[in-house]
Amino acid sequence: MATDFAVFLHRFLTSHLAGLRGCSPATIASYRDTFKLLIAWFRDERSIPPERLTLGRIDADAVTAFLNWLEAERHNSISTRNQRLAAVSSFFRWLQSQDPARMAGCQDILAIPAKKKPRQVVNHLTVEQTRRLLAAPDRSTRRGRRDATMLATLYDTAARVSELAGLTVRDIRVESPPLAVLTGKGRKIRHVPLGHNTAALLAAYLAEHGLDKPGHDDNPLFASQHGSKLSRGGIAWIIAKYQAQTGDPALAGADLSPHVIRHSRVICTAFSARGTPESGACRIVPHEHPVLGEVRAAGPVPGSLSLRCCS
Fold this sequence. Notes:
Largest sheet: 3 strands, antiparallel
CATH topology of the largest domain: hpI Integrase, Chain A
Strand order of the largest sheet: 1-2-3
């Protein structure tokens, strides 16, 4: 017979998150992974197998010990620790209304504070490093042209890696005014104008792969050799490959990720919006189309910003 924890967790992940709240598959997967780790922790650290794990065993002390284990044994960052705590807290906040007799225990867990983390400096590339990275793919090859187009799109849209991986052909418009439709966290949609150089690369890429013909709207924009969409890990691997080929020792040894490229684009936009000089970070070339999206700048953005490295 299923335990009370198993019954309530199933209802939380299905009826509540997927049904009532309509959460995205990615959000539900994140919650699911948190509870997979919690169940594994009870099994390995408390010798309580999943079929014996009940709600009565999950208290504030156990949750705190689980969070400390994530940091100490799995080497999770403070951000990841806090994300796992948020998932557990969401479950017990919901449980209060399902089983009021457990409200006191639920509220003890809800009182666990998120751990503070030091404010980190945002890593980003200089303009010359960005040029070298985007110019690294060999455009005389089919795969090199795909990678050059992908890197240009990643930079020009300041997309999250999950947003880039999720792009389909229907999400791109290369006709004037060109734009990309990004689906981000919580299935929020952003319409991001594209620079002319990036749009030209995309138009040539779509034509080369026959994706500009009818019937391909739902195809992944950037696909692997097997025709499936590139994974986030695959995109990171491609970036690392060209990072090593740039010939820039500082860039080759940098901690580069898709998110750093996103930061580079946002910081360039912010500098331009504030009228800030280059300050050793990046030189920006304005174009006529306005940029929409997440720009952390004090004041309006005067125009679309991109590097002349995609021609």
